[in-house]
Amino acid sequence: MGLLSQVALATSSYYDKLNTQCATLNGTGSVRNSSVGCTTCHDSSYNVNSTGRAFISAGHKPTAAISSILCTLAAATNTAPTANAGPDQSITNALPVTVTLKGTGADKDGDALTFTWSLTKKPAGSQAVLSSTTAASPSFSADVVGQYTAKLIVNDGKLNSSADTVSIIVGKTGNAKPVAHAGLDQHVQIGALVTLSASGTDADNEPLTYLWTLKTPKNSAAVLSNATALMPTFIADLPGRYEARLVVNDGKVNSNADSVMITAGSGNVAPVANAGADKNALLNTEITLNGKGFDADGDSLTYLWSLIKIPKDSSAHMSDATLASPILVADKLGEYVAQLIVNDGVLNSKPDTVLIKVSEPVTSEVSVGLALMLEPSVLMLEEFGKSIIVKANISAVNNVDRLDIPVLVSAKVGRPDGSSQSLGQKRILLKEVYKIYAQYTPKMVGEHTVTVVISDQTGGTLAEQSKKLTVLLQNDDDDDEHDSDGHDDDD
């Protein structure tokens, strides 16, 4: 509740109907239908309705003006927003390298948020500056080896959040430390089966292994079903807080630990909102959001979306803010941040947000370089372990002004019998120097063709390259064909 303040209503005349007048907190005058409510009036003939606005009623037309009605005012409660500067990063690309920050903000009141970034630490001699201090995801050029620290504060128009920081370690050579992601906090009922969800990122695109540990309440017998699995489970057998810690390893070094908290209790448990994955979109196109909610009690959920950040002069709005998957039209270039809160009929979830980056369509002026390699190109299955390695390096060519363009990189292999198999796909920005690293196990004698295609947002091909693999010896192994890609799939 805000500070209480006594102010006077302006002089007015009233007729034979209800009239609404209420004063502002600063006492500069009265405003009709003000959102600031009069909670009490010193004159008992003037009442306050359930919304907190002062209604002055007259049974007949008064003969004189009414003036100087003193009311005690209370400002509406506002909750400070929360800032998230994103996960720490470790980068080993040749310098200079572009670093993109990934800030988000959440506000329980659904207020629009503004972002303020600052680089609070950088190596001696670095000239790094942020591309924008007010964007949700600004970038900077890391020009010196060492540690960079960026700080994010968000504001809801009234209050600042606490600051959140992200650390970026930049090195020219050597192995980059991977980053672990233990997932979202959960609230569950006592006795519930809890499923954890691990993920990890590695700047060198090396395969990762996972190791979970579980800290339980006193006297709990909970244990993980498999400490090295991506999605292990355990039963929350007692009330209290369970802390699951995840460490990933790239074969050389462990990541820093990341933790997820699971709170078990009786009674109603607050639901969990999921606003979906971040998106890239084209200007003046419809964007369908993909909201989800989970409730440990199995209660029906309602949805409430809000746009907490939009570009300047944008008039974007949700088609229906109470749908799980509303639609909005991106009418301006820039960043949009949508926030989702779900409710189980009793409790609200914590807010979750999704970032939408809107850009202009890719034009034919974009040029992309692609270098595709196979190791080996002629395969003797018994000699080479029955598999090949697919490598591809991708970069922009002669187009430095348009490096923010998103493109889709996809790889596949065509078999001798005419069938094909996907090796994965990923959306990237052209400013990224991207590398594919995938493994493919053929089972047919003959010619196999590996193809990598780079497409723009309209589906047009920007670059394509194929390499042929000749298999000289039949693989008699009855195991199914297997592949593992070195990059994530993207919807």
TrEMBL record:
UniProt-listed Gene3D superfamilies: Immunoglobulins (2.60.40.10)
UniProt GO cellular component terms: cytoplasmic vesicle; membrane
Domain annotation PKD/Chitinase: ranges: 86-173, 179-267, 272-361
InterPro entries per record: Ig-like_fold, KIAA0319-like, PKD/Chitinase_dom, PKD_dom_sf
Cited SUPFAM superfamilies: PKD domain (SSF49299)
Protein name: PKD/Chitinase domain-containing protein
Organism expressing this protein natively: Methylocucumis oryzae
